[in-house]
Amino acid sequence: MLTDIRNLVKSNGMPNRAVEDTGSSGKKSFELEAVENEDHFNQLEALLSTNSEFKKDLVEKLMTLGGKSLAETLKNMMRRLLTNQVLAKFNLRGKGNKRSMMSTETYKVLLACTMKRHANSTEVDVKDAMAIILKTAPDRPGGGGRKTTIGINI
Known about the structure:
Layout: H1 2-11, E1 19-20, E2 28-29, H2 38-50, H3 52-62, H4 70-81, H5 84-87, E3 90-91, E4 99-100, H6 105-117, H7 123-136
Parallel strand pairs: 3-4
Antiparallel strand pairs: 1-2
């Protein structure tokens, strides 16, 4: 049954979509699957900006993740939400040929969750940790590797 629901969600092309819980709670829940490409990331952004119930559910789901430190907690949340392939296309401020993570709704959700989880943390602490996670994404499995240019002097 659960695999049928997962396949239905995947076939609709919408990651992290809410599906009816089969339990006795009667509450909607969803399975959190990492966003695998830019199209799905854009769909996630659209959902977060238009659907406050989905945003609330996502925050609730991410708050169940943790770690020993702020950086570990943030890394766990980002891994659960986005693949290294997607993370490799971002940096914090959008310099170069990458997109800005700070300008996304996903950033706002991750910031809020991390700061709630680590009450003594500041926004700067979260930004610093996120910058490192984004910077190292191309080096991790599925990140696509670093782009190298060959300099030829003629």
